[in-house]
């Protein structure tokens, strides 16, 4: 995979932009899943790639950093085919029952002595969909009440290979055009707040990143690849115990829009399962590999109670992607990555929200550029950045990152919204059947997302309310009932 000429053009002509990430992920996937079916590889490519005669003569790009780590690996050593640096000691599994300090109601860690890799799909391979586990998850999705759009999967080859999907704006395909829905997390709300994320681990150099984050007292979100979580379960536990957020990044790192519904369910289901088996908790957030998401993938995520987290994108050519992943493969240089980083910083000051950047902990080079240069530079930034895991940058609690510890009263999860909506539809339909006056139910009709948690709180009022419906007695319209409807009108994330 080459660096596309459109990248060179955008870098040369639009100096304040960090360029879109899509093309480099051809390469990303090839490395991650080189042995998997070629029909699904290379699914993504730039949405617009005008040919250009721009050459490499302008490289290396210039950049200036406010600060760097005194023990940073020299830039001249952060290169393709760099000799492998010694790895830190890989953490062994923690004692069963240990709890993370930052989540008071967390369950204890499971006993990993019973964790058998043979009970999971093969590493970095798409999991089969005919296993009893996947069949169970498929059934759960079908019963979730979430309507999954019926359009067919994309074909490999990205935007140019899928012109109909690109043209169909109702699909809201983020990769080609940057369409996002309100259910996607793409920024942190507060200006100068950075929702720090690393993808594709846990991996051999992740301990170096964790050590540095400890030194400077930072916490991150880790989007973990399920098949690597089972390779390094002690490391995943250490991330979690240290207070970092753990989230889903699929089992084998495919482009989700190219998969069937069943294949997407298998990828997400196995990732949730391995994290639950290693940590005792199931994440509430996920990141689609390559950011490849459309409304079909979104619906399946919702049915599986996962909130999609992308990264900040303020224009087709200003995407907050460092491209750090591609130093390892020789597709880009560390100088280019730091140039991209500097452009991201330039864009940060122009937006009114905080931001989320795409970075990785899979390879030595990405960890070296993060710990040696990007993070020290960010810590020296003025005005100061507030650097947090995504869950915290959204003003949620650390425990809201997991189903078991989520505060349902303040953070209703995607699926609970649907259940309640289904419930209210049921109430509405039932009410119509009873021919009772419609007036008291009208306020619920425009509301698309509601919280089961709120409904649970209101259970003492809902139960007699349903009783009233069942006996065809007129609905209560007293002030407590009005307050009840108002309380149901809060929107889910
Ligand atoms: Zn990834």
TrEMBL record:
InterPro entries: Glyco_hydro/deAcase_b/a-brl, NODB_dom, Polysacc_deacetylase_ArnD. It comes from the Eukaryota. Gene3D superfamilies: Glycoside hydrolase/deacetylase. Its EC number is 3.5.1.41. The keyword Transferase does not apply. The keyword Signal applies. Keywords: Carbohydrate metabolism, Cell membrane, Cell wall, Cell wall biogenesis/degradation, Chitin degradation, Cobalt, Glycoprotein, GPI-anchor, Hydrolase, Lipoprotein, Membrane, Metal-binding, Polysaccharide degradation, Secreted, Signal. GO terms for molecular function: chitin deacetylase activity; metal ion binding. This is chitin deacetylase. It comes from Multifurca ochricompacta.
